[in-house]
Amino acid sequence: MQQAKKEARRSALAMPAEEFRNAGHRLVDRIADFIDSLPQRPVTTGESPSEIREALDAGRGLPESGTDAGALIDRAANLMFDHSLFNAHPRFWGYVTSGAAPIGMLAEFLGAAANPNCGAWLLSPMASEIEGQTIRWIAEMLNYPADCGGLFVSGGNMANIVGFLAGRAAKGGTELRSKGVDGKRLRAYCSSETHTWIQKAADIAGLGTESVRWIAVHKDFRIDVEALRKKIREDVEAGDKPFLVVGNAGTVSTGAVDPLIEIAGVCREFDVWFHVDGAYGAMAAAAPDAAAMFVGLDEADSLAVDPHKWLYAPLEAGCALVRDVSKLRDAFSYHPAYYHFGVQATNYFDLGPQNSRGFRALKVWLALQQVGREGYAEMIADDMRLSRAMYESVSKHSELEAMTQGLSIATFRYVPADLDRSDAKIADYLNELNQELLTRLQQGGEAYLSNAVIGGRYALRACIVNFRTTLEDVEGVPELVVRIGKQVDGERRK
After folding, report:
1. Are strands 241-248 and 318-322 parallel, antiparallel or unpaired?
2. Exposed/middle/buried for 367, CB within 10 Å: 0-12, 13-18, 19+?
3. Would you say the pTM of this structure is higher than 0.90?
């Protein structure tokens, strides 16, 4: 009897090789043209939410039948290239988000093709080993112990939260994971300039936000170490349990770097976990001119860095480093009967909160090899140099008040020439004026800044983590800000 011929399965999602190749080539061409056109484009279109929804046709229902993949990709490219804010633009300095390095874009494409699940080694053998090597390379750049543990996570918040939870497990008590806090008042300490991630961490960890002790800073926005020591001592005497101190390696408002070596001494004195939030600034330790600011970084029990900031990787790419990898396992590892992955290699679900994990390391691994330590040190140093140049340009203008400059962050504000900036009566007016100025600057698309509040004064803030920015870009800022400032001031005085 003749065997019936098996019919091949036809799937709506499958694409023949030639169709896939044509669509991919066309998309790569469009992306290359887009990157080349960035300096001539506005940073953002400044469109309203309703305009964006209209362009998307947001009210359209789910299609009943399919559409040609090539046409869909073309439409998606049009939507993204015509209606986005571009953090890769040379004059984007609003937030600590870099534009994606081109090799990182290609890495995302390649990683999705293999699509490894980087939770367990058996599911991602090569990807897991690449992640481990990338973590070691980042540690080497920072002179952090290269035999540390760590893993890639979504971003700075999660990298910091991983360090926080590792510290809670290590210093919170032997039965904390099984019985919870059990009436103990665990305390975490940080400067008043620390990012809000620590409130999220305290909340997630079940400690409550009131468990965080906010320590005053000096005029340079660095933590007051003696105030820190005094507060820990008071809490110990009150019966509380100090477990963690955060040192900032680059605050998001001003780029301040805490005295890390002094904080490390306090942590050893009281046997608490020393965590460094280096999500923004720690990579500057790789630049020779800035390395002295980060003395003591290698003393941290855990360290958060963000490759999608100063390593210019596409989102998402955060990284948590922990001196002793066993502390991550102590905080996160569980082994139910249905896990059969062994311990002969690193299984990243043991080291963090995720089981299913994407291949975030590939884009960083490739870029580190394309550029090398020296290339990154040069680019980071250039960003800091350009920030200083912006600050100097602002300082020379009679209608601008330069306020702070640290790492690659400069803050300043517009003050009309006929107003006395020291007069307390006009303080509110200047705050409102600069707030409106920033709104119009952001919507206008010529450059993109954000804000900071410096000593109660509303400031414009420029953070340069952008390998496309030039000296010409930053030196044009004073004229732009003053032009918009005069317009806003004139309208308000009417």
Report:
1. unpaired
2. buried
3. yes
